[in-house]
User: Fold this.
Amino acid sequence: MPLYEMMFIARQDLAPQQVDELTAEYTKIFTENGGKIVKTDNWGLRTLAYRINKNRKGHYVLLNLDTPAPALIEVERKMRLNEDILRYMSVRVEEFLDPSKTKDKFEEKEAA
Assistant:
């Protein structure tokens, strides 16, 4: 199955528990359609670069997925309909990056 990274931003006035419920709802759809959640990373409440729908902050959540495309399309459809989601983005990747390895490569390039 193809690998995807999906990030979504939820409204600032949601409680962290509500963001966790949204994440659980979307991960349930992936697993029901034969996908697998490799990693879920909740970045918490962060300031946006610009205002989106009168919101200055948002809850960021990153999902690493190993899922078929129809499941991803269904989740994106549900995100479009959900007013609590400000933005979302899904990107197909060849492999998931390990942040520690990426940091080491960056430091090697800086030293050279």
